[in-house]
Write a structure and sequence with these properties.
Distance between the termini: 18 Å
Radius of gyration: 17 Å
Structural class: alpha/beta
Number of strands: 13
Protein backbone atom coordinates (compact mmCIF):
# COMPACT_ATOMS: atom_id res chain seq x y z
CA UNK A 1 0.00 0.00 0.00
CA UNK A 2 1.40 3.39 -1.00
CA UNK A 3 1.32 6.13 1.63
CA UNK A 4 0.03 9.42 0.23
CA UNK A 5 2.35 12.24 1.23
CA UNK A 6 0.73 15.55 2.19
CA UNK A 7 1.24 18.42 -0.25
CA UNK A 8 2.83 21.45 1.43
CA UNK A 9 2.89 24.76 -0.43
CA UNK A 10 5.79 27.13 0.26
CA UNK A 11 5.65 30.81 -0.69
CA UNK A 12 8.55 32.19 -2.71
CA UNK A 13 10.51 35.30 -3.51
CA UNK A 14 9.93 37.25 -6.73
CA UNK A 15 13.15 38.95 -7.78
CA UNK A 16 13.58 41.33 -10.70
CA UNK A 17 17.08 40.23 -11.73
CA UNK A 18 18.54 36.80 -11.01
CA UNK A 19 21.57 35.41 -12.83
CA UNK A 20 22.27 31.75 -13.61
CA UNK A 21 24.37 30.42 -16.46
CA UNK A 22 24.02 32.94 -19.30
CA UNK A 23 20.66 34.19 -18.13
CA UNK A 24 19.66 37.24 -16.13
CA UNK A 25 15.89 37.32 -15.75
CA UNK A 26 13.05 37.93 -13.34
CA UNK A 27 12.66 34.80 -11.24
CA UNK A 28 10.46 33.22 -8.61
CA UNK A 29 12.90 31.50 -6.30
CA UNK A 30 13.23 29.75 -2.98
CA UNK A 31 16.33 28.66 -1.05
CA UNK A 32 16.61 24.89 -1.45
CA UNK A 33 16.53 24.38 2.32
CA UNK A 34 12.77 24.96 2.37
CA UNK A 35 11.63 22.24 -0.05
CA UNK A 36 14.34 19.93 1.28
CA UNK A 37 13.01 20.32 4.83
CA UNK A 38 9.45 19.60 3.65
CA UNK A 39 10.65 16.49 1.82
CA UNK A 40 12.76 15.25 4.72
CA UNK A 41 9.74 15.65 7.00
CA UNK A 42 7.73 13.26 4.79
CA UNK A 43 5.72 15.55 2.50
CA UNK A 44 5.69 16.86 -1.07
CA UNK A 45 6.75 20.47 -1.67
CA UNK A 46 5.07 22.92 -4.07
CA UNK A 47 6.41 26.41 -4.73
CA UNK A 48 3.83 29.23 -4.57
CA UNK A 49 5.16 32.34 -6.35
CA UNK A 50 3.29 35.61 -5.85
CA UNK A 51 -0.08 35.64 -7.62
CA UNK A 52 -3.23 37.74 -7.55
CA UNK A 53 -4.64 37.68 -3.99
CA UNK A 54 -8.04 36.57 -5.31
CA UNK A 55 -6.45 33.25 -6.32
CA UNK A 56 -5.30 32.44 -2.78
CA UNK A 57 -8.39 30.49 -1.71
CA UNK A 58 -8.31 28.26 -4.79
CA UNK A 59 -4.58 27.67 -4.25
CA UNK A 60 -4.95 26.76 -0.58
CA UNK A 61 -7.86 24.45 -1.41
CA UNK A 62 -5.40 22.17 -3.26
CA UNK A 63 -2.92 22.04 -0.36
CA UNK A 64 -2.70 19.98 2.81
CA UNK A 65 -0.43 22.50 4.53
CA UNK A 66 1.13 25.91 3.98
CA UNK A 67 4.54 27.44 4.75
CA UNK A 68 5.07 31.20 4.57
CA UNK A 69 8.81 31.47 4.01
CA UNK A 70 11.37 34.00 5.17
CA UNK A 71 12.31 37.01 3.10
CA UNK A 72 12.17 40.81 3.01
CA UNK A 73 10.69 43.10 5.65
CA UNK A 74 6.92 43.46 5.77
CA UNK A 75 5.92 46.93 4.58
CA UNK A 76 5.17 48.96 7.75
CA UNK A 77 1.97 50.42 6.29
CA UNK A 78 0.51 46.92 6.72
CA UNK A 79 0.56 47.45 10.48
CA UNK A 80 -0.04 51.18 10.58
CA UNK A 81 3.55 52.37 11.05
CA UNK A 82 5.91 54.74 9.31
CA UNK A 83 9.04 53.05 7.91
CA UNK A 84 12.15 53.12 10.03
CA UNK A 85 15.30 54.12 8.07
CA UNK A 86 16.65 50.60 8.72
CA UNK A 87 13.59 48.85 7.27
CA UNK A 88 14.23 47.30 3.87
CA UNK A 89 12.42 48.15 0.63
CA UNK A 90 8.85 46.86 0.31
CA UNK A 91 7.85 43.67 -1.51
CA UNK A 92 4.25 44.69 -2.07
CA UNK A 93 3.18 41.87 -4.40
CA UNK A 94 4.56 39.31 -2.00
CA UNK A 95 2.97 40.99 1.04
CA UNK A 96 -0.45 41.00 -0.63
CA UNK A 97 -0.18 37.39 -1.84
CA UNK A 98 1.05 35.94 1.43
CA UNK A 99 -1.49 37.83 3.52
CA UNK A 100 -4.19 36.41 1.24
CA UNK A 101 -2.72 32.91 1.64
CA UNK A 102 -2.78 33.27 5.43
CA UNK A 103 -6.40 34.44 5.35
CA UNK A 104 -7.36 31.55 3.06
CA UNK A 105 -5.59 28.98 5.23
CA UNK A 106 -7.31 30.35 8.32
CA UNK A 107 -10.72 30.24 6.65
CA UNK A 108 -10.20 26.67 5.41
CA UNK A 109 -8.47 25.33 8.53
CA UNK A 110 -5.34 24.38 6.56
CA UNK A 111 -2.31 23.95 8.86
CA UNK A 112 0.13 26.83 8.59
CA UNK A 113 3.78 27.37 9.50
CA UNK A 114 5.35 30.83 9.29
CA UNK A 115 9.15 31.04 9.18
CA UNK A 116 10.93 34.30 10.11
CA UNK A 117 9.14 36.86 7.87
CA UNK A 118 6.31 34.32 7.75
CA UNK A 119 5.87 34.50 11.52
CA UNK A 120 5.93 38.30 11.39
CA UNK A 121 3.37 38.34 8.58
CA UNK A 122 1.10 35.94 10.49
CA UNK A 123 1.21 38.39 13.38
CA UNK A 124 0.42 41.34 11.08
CA UNK A 125 -2.42 39.42 9.39
CA UNK A 126 -4.08 39.09 12.79
CA UNK A 127 -3.73 42.77 13.68
CA UNK A 128 -0.36 42.70 15.42
CA UNK A 129 2.62 45.01 14.98
CA UNK A 130 6.38 44.63 14.56
CA UNK A 131 9.54 46.12 16.04
CA UNK A 132 11.28 47.42 12.94
CA UNK A 133 14.83 46.93 14.18
CA UNK A 134 16.55 44.99 16.92
CA UNK A 135 20.26 44.34 17.39
CA UNK A 136 21.97 41.06 18.06
CA UNK A 137 19.91 38.66 15.92
CA UNK A 138 21.62 39.27 12.54
CA UNK A 139 25.20 40.25 13.24
CA UNK A 140 26.95 39.38 9.94
CA UNK A 141 25.14 40.01 6.63
CA UNK A 142 24.45 36.75 4.83
CA UNK A 143 25.58 34.57 7.75
CA UNK A 144 23.19 32.70 10.01
CA UNK A 145 23.90 32.87 13.71
CA UNK A 146 22.65 30.60 16.49
CA UNK A 147 21.06 31.21 19.85
CA UNK A 148 18.88 29.20 22.24
CA UNK A 149 15.11 29.48 22.38
CA UNK A 150 13.13 28.48 25.44
CA UNK A 151 9.59 27.09 25.00
CA UNK A 152 6.64 28.41 26.97
CA UNK A 153 5.22 25.49 29.00
CA UNK A 154 1.78 24.27 27.95
CA UNK A 155 2.03 25.52 24.35
CA UNK A 156 1.89 23.59 21.10
CA UNK A 157 5.53 24.43 20.48
CA UNK A 158 6.52 23.08 23.91
CA UNK A 159 4.86 19.80 22.92
CA UNK A 160 7.02 19.74 19.77
CA UNK A 161 10.30 20.76 21.46
CA UNK A 162 9.99 20.67 25.25
CA UNK A 163 13.61 21.58 25.97
CA UNK A 164 15.65 24.72 25.28
CA UNK A 165 16.98 24.40 21.72
CA UNK A 166 19.81 26.07 19.80
CA UNK A 167 18.38 27.38 16.53
CA UNK A 168 19.71 29.02 13.31
CA UNK A 169 18.69 32.66 13.22
CA UNK A 170 18.95 35.75 11.03
CA UNK A 171 16.50 38.63 11.49
CA UNK A 172 16.52 42.29 12.45
CA UNK A 173 12.79 42.69 13.14
CA UNK A 174 10.54 41.03 15.69
CA UNK A 175 6.98 40.75 16.98
CA UNK A 176 5.82 43.73 19.04
CA UNK A 177 2.08 43.69 19.85
CA UNK A 178 0.64 40.22 19.35
CA UNK A 179 -2.15 39.71 16.83
CA UNK A 180 -5.60 38.57 17.89
CA UNK A 181 -5.70 34.95 19.00
CA UNK A 182 -1.91 34.55 19.06
CA UNK A 183 0.13 33.55 22.09
CA UNK A 184 3.92 33.52 22.51
CA UNK A 185 5.32 30.00 22.66
CA UNK A 186 9.12 30.53 22.79
CA UNK A 187 11.55 33.30 23.70
CA UNK A 188 15.20 34.15 23.08
CA UNK A 189 17.46 34.88 26.08
CA UNK A 190 16.90 38.64 25.59
CA UNK A 191 13.12 38.17 25.77
CA UNK A 192 12.44 38.45 22.03
CA UNK A 193 9.38 36.43 21.03
CA UNK A 194 10.77 33.55 18.96
CA UNK A 195 7.58 31.56 18.33
CA UNK A 196 3.86 32.31 18.27
CA UNK A 197 0.83 30.10 17.83
CA UNK A 198 -2.91 30.33 17.48
CA UNK A 199 -4.71 29.36 20.66
CA UNK A 200 -7.79 27.91 18.93
CA UNK A 201 -8.37 24.73 16.95
CA UNK A 202 -6.64 25.90 13.76
CA UNK A 203 -3.04 24.58 13.65
CA UNK A 204 -0.93 27.68 13.03
CA UNK A 205 2.60 28.20 14.33
CA UNK A 206 5.20 30.85 13.59
CA UNK A 207 8.92 30.57 14.37
CA UNK A 208 11.34 33.47 14.14
CA UNK A 209 14.32 31.25 13.36
CA UNK A 210 15.16 29.26 10.21
CA UNK A 211 14.60 25.51 10.66
CA UNK A 212 15.46 24.99 6.98
CA UNK A 213 19.06 25.94 7.84
CA UNK A 214 19.46 23.25 10.50
CA UNK A 215 19.04 19.52 11.05
CA UNK A 216 16.10 19.66 13.49
CA UNK A 217 12.99 18.40 11.65
CA UNK A 218 10.56 18.58 14.56
CA UNK A 219 8.73 21.78 13.63
CA UNK A 220 8.24 20.73 10.02
CA UNK A 221 7.28 17.20 11.03
CA UNK A 222 4.61 18.70 13.30
CA UNK A 223 3.19 20.66 10.36
CA UNK A 224 3.26 17.58 8.13
CA UNK A 225 1.55 15.53 10.84
CA UNK A 226 -1.19 18.15 11.16
CA UNK A 227 -1.54 18.28 7.36
CA UNK A 228 -1.92 14.49 7.16
CA UNK A 229 -4.89 14.37 9.52
CA UNK A 230 -8.27 13.75 7.83
Amino acid sequence: MTTVRPLIGVSTYLEAEVRWGRWELEAALLPAGYPRLVQQAGALAAMLPPDAPEHAAATVARLDGLVIAGGPDVEPIRYGAEPDPRTGPPARARDAWELALIDAASAAGVPLLGICRGMQLLNVALGGTLVQHIDGHADTPGVFGHHPVKPVPGTRYADIAPEETLVPTFHHQAVDRLGEGLAPSAHAPDGTVEAVELTGAHWALGVQWHPEMGADLRVMRALVSAAARP
